[in-house]
Amino acid sequence: MKKTILATMLTSLFAATAAQSATVVDSDGVTVNLTGELEIQFAKDFDTAGPKLDVYDANVGVDVAYALTDSVSAIGVISFDTQNGEDDESNADAELDDAYVGFASDTYGTLTFGKQVTIYDDAGISEDYRLGYSSFYDQDDSGEQVIKYTFERNAVYGGIAYMLNDGDNVNNDAYAVDGKLGVRFSGLDLTVFYGQGEKGETADTVAEIGDKSKSLNLEARYTIADLTLMAAYGMVDRDAGNSTGYTHDDEGYAAGALYTIDKVVLAGGWALLDADNADHEVNSYYANVTYNFNSNVNVYAEVGGDDAEDSEVGYVAGMTVTF
């Protein structure tokens, strides 16, 4: 099995589960990796609640690759995840996170089917751990019925994903489709994301106003030596299902920077969101420092806030261990 095929699969498919992986089988064209990540945080969010100790992220997974030819491999991925910090559930149980199969090739790209994230999961320039800003997107960016294709060829990369009627939806018109296209040259990385979808009716509720949406993200990164500068623009248009058609609802701008000094990484950023349902524009910010003991272990501290009503400055101290 060509090493470039394996490198492509690990980079594009398994980076979301852990920064590193432990290879348990690598023989006769068969590769089996065990991946995992545990992240514990002591954090206070923007609300008035006091600080808490969170099992913010805990996941474990297995990925398998079978070499079919010199340039194509069949792959399978399964992982389980618990994210108390994101879901704000103090007793959240581990649940199935990824479960998909497909084909990977350094020549033709990667095609996968099953429970997985869509392309828009990659959107956003924030390098925060908890208190930063997200991308501007109004559809789910993961589901159980996702078909996704990604590719990277020299300086050009991209992908497209289609999510079928998912979860408890009973409206067969419900869907989400998103994609990205990017190019890298001379230290500059430019990416455009686009997505649209319809949430549809569910088993117990009727679709709300704005259940159709179109989203756009434009992102730029420029790296010189150990410094990376980032900027982004995002917008969401919604269709209430009446004669007005799509209306321009949310718009946002963001900027950030990342600087590496040996094992220390400094990051910070700012964003401005002008939401249609908000009383005023909201400015948000974050700053953090990370110390990497090695590629598998780090500790970090972060502070962040915004000028929304009843918001307070938040802070985080955490540690991450991956394998």
TrEMBL record:
<dbReference type="InterPro" id="IPR050298">
    <property type="entry name" value="Gram-neg_bact_OMP"/>
</dbReference>
<protein>
    <submittedName>
        <fullName>Porin</fullName>
    </submittedName>
</protein>
<dbReference type="Pfam" id="PF13609">
    <property type="entry name" value="Porin_4"/>
</dbReference>
<dbReference type="InterPro" id="IPR023614">
    <property type="entry name" value="Porin_dom_sf"/>
</dbReference>
<keyword id="KW-0732">Signal</keyword>
<dbReference type="InterPro" id="IPR033900">
    <property type="entry name" value="Gram_neg_porin_domain"/>
</dbReference>
<feature type="domain" description="Porin">
    <location>
        <begin position="10"/>
        <end position="310"/>
    </location>
</feature>
<feature type="signal peptide">
    <location>
        <begin position="1"/>
        <end position="21"/>
    </location>
</feature>
<keyword id="KW-0472">Membrane</keyword>
